[in-house]
Every structure is written in C-alpha cells, then in structure tokens.
TrEMBL record:
The keyword Transcription does not apply. The lineage of its organism: Bacteria, Bacillati, Bacillota, Clostridia, Eubacteriales. InterPro entries: C-N_Hydrolase (IPR003010), C-N_Hydrolase_sf (IPR036526), Nit1/2_C-N_Hydrolase (IPR045254). This is 2-oxoglutaramate amidase. Gene3D superfamilies: Carbon-nitrogen hydrolase (3.60.110.10). PANTHER family: NITRILASE-RELATED, OMEGA-AMIDASE NIT2. It comes from the Bacteria. The keyword Mitochondrion does not apply. It comes from Sporotomaculum syntrophicum. GO terms for biological process: asparagine metabolic process; glutamine metabolic process; oxaloacetate metabolic process. Signal peptide: none annotated. Pfam families: CN_hydrolase. Residues 4-248 form the CN hydrolase domain. GO terms for molecular function: 2-oxoglutaramate amidase activity; omega-amidase activity.
Amino acid sequence: MGKCKLAVCQINVTADKRFNINNARDVVFRAASQGAQIVLLPEMFNCPYETSLFPDYAESYPDGETVQMLSRVAAELGIVLVGGSIPERDGDIVYNTCFVFGQQGGLLGRHRKMHLFDVDLPDLNVQESSTLGPGRDFTVVDAGICKIGVMICFDVRFPELARLLALAGVDMLLIPAAFNMVTGPAHWDLTMRMRAVDNQVYVAAASPARDEQAEYVTYGHSMVVDPWGTVVAQAGTGEEIIVAEVNLETIREVRERLPLLAQRRTDLYDLCKK
Ligand SMILES: NC(=O)CC(=O)C(=O)O
C-alpha cells in the first residue's frame, strides 16, 4: 500500500482572468516544490464566483487558455493536477467543470458539477442554473498511486454521490469548492468530515481565499480529512497551501476495524426502492 503527498491550494481569485491563471500556475509550482504529487485547486479559480459572469469567463476544451496552462504545468512538474473548476463552454451550454491532468499532461478526467447550487437562504440567493447546465457523469480518476473521486462543492451535500464513488473504489474525494459566509460556518467542516467518515476515504476540499469585498464572500478554510474523520490539515482564510500525507494503509486499517462498507444491509435497501 502506498503513500503520497497531496497539496490543497487556497488561492486569491480576482476579476482579472489572466492574473488568476498566472497566480494559480505560480501556486502550483510552489506546492510541487514542497513535494506534492497531487495538487488540488479551488472551484471557479479563474473567475469570480458570480453566476452572471460565468458565460463571459467560459472557455472550451482543449483550446482554452486555462486548460492549456493546467496541462502544461502538470507535465512540466510531473504531477497529477486536479484543476479546481472553471466555466466550460460546450456548444450552447456552460458547465462548472473540473479538469484533471496527469504527469504527462494528458487529460485523466473531467467532472461537470452535477448538483447545481440553487438556494434561497436568508442573506444568500444563488441560482447557478440561471447560467449553468448540470453534469451527468460520475468521475473516477486513476492517478496511478491511488484512485480519485471528483465532486464540485454542492455535490458534497449529496451523500449518495460520495457513496457511489467509494463503491467504485476511490481512495480520496477531491472537492474544488466555494462555500460562503452563510453556509460555511454552519456546514463546511461537518460535511467534509462526514463524507470522510461515511465512506472511510480521504477528503480534501479547496476553497478560493476569502475576499471581503467580493459580491460572494467565500469561507476559505480549505482542508484535508483522513478516513477516521480527523482534520489533518486546514487553511485559514487567506492565500495558503496546505500539504498532507495520504496513506492508503490508513484506509485499509480503518475499514478493517470498523467495517462499515461491508456491513451495509443492501438486502433491505433494495426493498426500499419501491
Ligand atoms: N457553492 C456551492 O456550490 C455550495 C455551497 O456553497 C454550499 O453547499 O453551501
């Protein structure tokens, strides 16, 4: 069973797309210089998190400048780069998409946010579906040393998705995310830790750094949680790289001692389908 180093990059996001792309590249270089073999970026790292802006910042695969940068940097550094998310245009539809590139710069996976963040809360109204389309596919990436399941932000609130990815054999759930000042203090740690405990996998979530002047103020506090639910690394609110060791032996040990996945009563759950 192997070990690897995972870096989670909490980065500043501005209205200047070029600045965001260059800044992300520089931060990924810094993360790799700390020994990271897998690097995770935040949700909407090249674009302010404002639904009305997504179509203007959107780009297509493979020609878009952001995806080109991600592919080049992954190859140059020989890392697996889980490229946060960006607005991706495909025909008439814009998706909230995470591109994952491998050590040679090839595309290993593409996750389009499945559950769009449409909520009306006190002090927070967001309707992602006003400018985005939902993804339809589960994303499991074979990163060589481990298997990665990708979810984007609101996806993490749907335990069914994390469970399906765990049953597909992923060792870690990597989550570009952008919780806010309403939901973050209440649910960020709780949700990330629960998905780790439920499924006995590592969970890592990357947020943009907090910008108090932004229209949508992100929570920050990017984190890595181990399969026992322990927070092994956590950022504050500013730009920061956190690095954690992922040990696949820890997954095996936790599952052996507390065999949750093996003790599921699927015979009964099947009866509940009607
Ligand atoms: N931004 C999101 O997609 C989700 C979020 O902020 C939350 O679930 O809270």
